[in-house]
Write a structure and sequence with these properties.
By secondary structure, this protein is an alpha+beta fold. It folds into 4 domains: 96 residues, no CATH class; 92 residues, PAS domain (Beta-Lactamase, 2-Layer Sandwich); 71 residues, Signal transduction histidine kinase, dimerisation/phosphotransfer (DHp) domain (Helix Hairpins); 164 residues, Heat Shock Protein 90. It is built from 12 helices and 13 strands. The strands form 3 sheets. The chain has a 5-stranded antiparallel sheet. A 5-stranded mixed sheet has the order 7-9-10-12-11. A 3-stranded antiparallel sheet has the order 6-8-13. α1 packs antiparallel against α2, α9 packs parallel to α10 and α10 packs antiparallel against α12. The radius of gyration is 44 Å and the shape is elongated. It starts with a helix and ends with a strand. The chain binds adenosine-5'-diphosphate (ADP). The site of adenosine-5'-diphosphate (ADP) has 22 residues, from α10 and α12. The site of adenosine-5'-diphosphate has 22 residues, from α10 and α12.
């Protein structure tokens, strides 16, 4: 503790001088000097103890009021604490920013220690795996995820690929798949990333179904055509038979052509930008065109025995793509004609809506559609009446096209149907696409 020999020397001299002034014998001077030095050491130790106690408690306690060299020690330590505190605050802020960035990640992140206990996880991971991001910290991951595929993945320790498990809220008819990928880092620690792959898997399943459906739709007419070609090559057909076979082959070729044309329309709708507001189409002209086509179709499928009625409609301009709008409304009218028995009634027209938008409606007195089918009508190749659709040249893509066109114009396709009474299909358009007087 004695770090200041000058101070000690001064104290000792002062103690000795005092003792000499008041006491005669020589030993009294020595005793006085020793006493003075002892006094100094005691005071110095008290100051040192106060400084030490402050250092131990760090910056939380106010620095002790000490003098001389101890004051300098305290001041230097205080400045040191200040710099350390600033650094610690900066590091803490950086850590919080880093954690906030991981929180914002669309993927789930779980940090595991060497013993596979959770050290930290973000909300997304908690949601994917059904954890509580605070309560489950320090829990063993094996106790929280009991899926056998995940346990096997952990046990095998081959983390080159992710493993997929059911999400917590998956149940029959409501798939929820989570991909988990573990990465080892540091000294045996693990970073576990989770990703919701439900939509990806559904898209992949849809793609597979779509390819299977297209192949099936094309294979059937192709088989028919190649069958007739073989027949014509092998047998000596009469002119009447040849004419009949050729007519049937023509029908099948037409079927394939319609299918390809609908597929191309769908892919154009999916791949092209949304129609702008520079092309204006007259609502009346649209109706005239599609109604003429519907009457021609009715002649073919029902000997023209449908009553196709155009309801009194307002005339206005529509901002949109003419070919798309014609294709959508004529698909609705063609369905009404194809599914409504002859002598049935079909009504078509426009109406302005109170919000400034408009809708085109097509009603028929046909068989109607059961409620359970309504949500699936716009799925590609979904058919309620399969045989009627095929007989009348349907592709199963018509309503998918209608839905796309409506959505691309900012509207939607709506259906109301009562079995045994008929159906009403509507295409709505938002006010921004309607210019009425
Ligand atoms: P399709 O080419 O088979 O007509 P769509 O996508 O146009 O395909 O229609 C899907 C299914 O919805 C049809 O197969 C048919 O069963 C049913 N459907 C569509 N419109 C009507 C309607 N107006 N009346 C009764 N059923 C209809």
């Amino acid at each position: 503790m004695i770090r200041r020999p000058l101070e000690l020397f001064a104290c000792t001299l002062a103690g000795g001088a005092l003792a000499l002034a008041y006491a005669e014998p020589a030993w009294a001077g020595v005793a006085g000097s020793v006493g003075g030095a002892g006094l100094w050491v005691t005071f110095d130790n008290i100051r040192a103890a106060r400084v030490l106690s402050w250092l131990r408690h760090g910056h939380a306690v106010r620095p002790p009021a000490v003098s001389a060299v101890w004051a300098e020690v305290v001041e230097r330590a205080r400045r040191g604490f200040k710099v350390l505190n600033r650094k610690a605050r900066k590091s803490e802020a950086r850590l919080q920013e880093f954690l906030a960035a991981i929180q914002a990640s669309p993927n789930g992140v779980v940090l595991l220690d060497k013993t596979l206990n959770i050290e930290w996880c973000n909300f997304t991971a908690a949601q994917h795996l059904g954890f509580d991001s605070k309560r489950d910290v320090q829990q063993q991951i094996r106790n929280l995820i009991r899926d056998p595929a995940f346990i096997a993945y952990l046990n095998e320790g081959d983390f080159s690929k992710p493993v997929e498990i059911d999400g917590r809220d998956a149940y029959p008819g409501h798939p929820h798949r989570i991909a988990i990928h573990i990465h080892v880092y540091g000294k045996g620690r693990r970073l576990m990333l989770t990703r919701d792959v439900t939509a990806v898997q559904q898209a992949e399943a849809m793609r597979r179904d779509f390819v299977a459906n297209v192949s099936h739709e094309i294979r059937t007419p192709l088989t028919v055509v190649s069958g007739f070609i073989e027949t014509l090559q092998q047998i000596d057909a009469t002119p009447e038979e040849r004419a009949r076979y050729l007519a049937l082959m023509g029908q099948q070729a037409q079927r394939m052509q319609t299918l390809v044309s609908d597929l191309l329309t769908l892919s154009r709708l999916e791949g092209s930008p949304v129609p702008g507001s520079t092309e204006w189409v007259s609502s009346t002209e649209l109706l005239d065109q599609v109604v003429a086509e519907a009457r021609a179709l009715s002649d073919v499928v029902a000997g023209g025995e449908h009553a196709i009625v155009v309801q009194p409609s307002p005339e206005f301009e529509i901002a949109g793509a003419r070919t798309e709008l014609v294709s959508a409304i004529s698909n609705l009218l063609s369905n009404a004609v194809r599914y409504t028995p002859s002598k049935g009634r079909i009504e078509v027209g426009w109406r302005l809506l109170s919000d400034g938008g408009a809708e085109c409606f097509v009603s028929d007195s046909g068989p109607g559609i059961e409620a359970e089918h309504l949500p699936r009508l716009t799925e590609r190749f979904y058919r309620v009446d399969r045989s009627r659709s095929r007989e009348t040249g349907g592709t199963g893509l018509g309503l998918a096209i209608v839905k796309h066109v409506a959505q691309r114009h900012g509207g939607q396709m709506l259906v109301d149907s009562v079995v045994g009474q008929g159906s009403t299909f509507r295409i709505t358009l938002p006010p921004s696409r309607v210019l009425a007087d």
